[in-house]
Amino acid sequence: MASAKLLPAYLVVGPDEVKRTAAQDRLKARLEASGLAAFNLDERDMTKPQEPDEVIASLSTYPMGADFRLVILSGCEHLPKAMSEALVSYLAHPAPDTVCLIVADSLAKNTRLYKAVAKLGKQAIIDCSAKKRWELPAYVQGMAGRHGIAITSAAAEELVARSGESTRMLDTQLKKLAEVIGGGTIEVGDVERYVARTAEAKPWDFLDAVSARDAARALELYRLLPPRSEVRLFALLLGRVRELIVAKALDARGAARELASTLGVRDWQVKNHVRWSRAFTMDELVGALRSAEDVECALKGSRDSETAFVGWVLSLTK
Length: 318
Fold this sequence. Notes:
Blueprint (H helix, E strand, L loop, with lengths): L8 E5 L3 H16 L4 H4 E5 L6 H8 L9 E6 L6 H12 L5 E7 L7 H7 L6 E3 L8 H9 L5 E2 L1 H11 L3 H15 L3 E2 L1 H7 L8 H9 L3 H10 L5 H23 L6 H5 L9 H5 L4 H18 L5 H13 L1
Parallel strand pairs: 1-4, 1-5, 2-3, 3-4, 6-7
Helix pairs in contact: 4-5, 6-7, 7-9, 10-11, 10-12, 12-15, 15-16
Enzyme class: transferase
Protein name: DNA-directed DNA polymerase
Organism: [Collinsella] massiliensis
């Protein structure tokens, strides 16, 4: 039986909505192959009142003309204790021809329900953890294929910057771009033309643009950041300059791999630092530190604080 390859239950857990939906769609598609999905699919919103006996009865119902019955329980992050315990008891001796898909935005690993599902096998936990910001562009490139398009790395970066970190929003924008472009590869210009900025610009994107010596991008992001944030941005950028100096020094010694440990950060936090540092001379970076003293003085109550800060940014990116 095809259902022998399926576990009696899975926990789809994490805030990545696209991945959660994909997990559900895969099982639905497998069920629909039988032609009797309407008789063998039960979807329940567990954020609404549910009787434990009714849910367990559904899980215990035999499939009709199909290899398995699929019961999807969504919104299981805050189940009432009676419901949670009923599911734990059921999972101790689950129905052999039913697949229970438990969907939750989050569920602690030390809960009885999590442990009950985990006991069913290594594949029972489907991790839908949120991607880190730096992982999203590559993830977007993978998502684009599901819409019959490709997207360049730079365009994916711009899409994340404009749409934010919600995978649901990113997927929606990719679908829209696919419809507008009609196939092929999405370029940066396409994203700029068809995707409105809904996400607030992040200071880290600004720092990265300065580090990459992209003056136009740096100024664009600077204008999108909250007003009168020069003091904070100055402190962050000064820290970045120091990091680039360390990166360049280590690179010159052939010890670039030691950058993260030297700075006491994670590897992903400095993954581009060495490449960025190579676009500067050491004199330029040290000179940026020296000129920072004048900028700091201007930031302390001067009417020319914005002018001084922007001038410093331009001197770094020219």
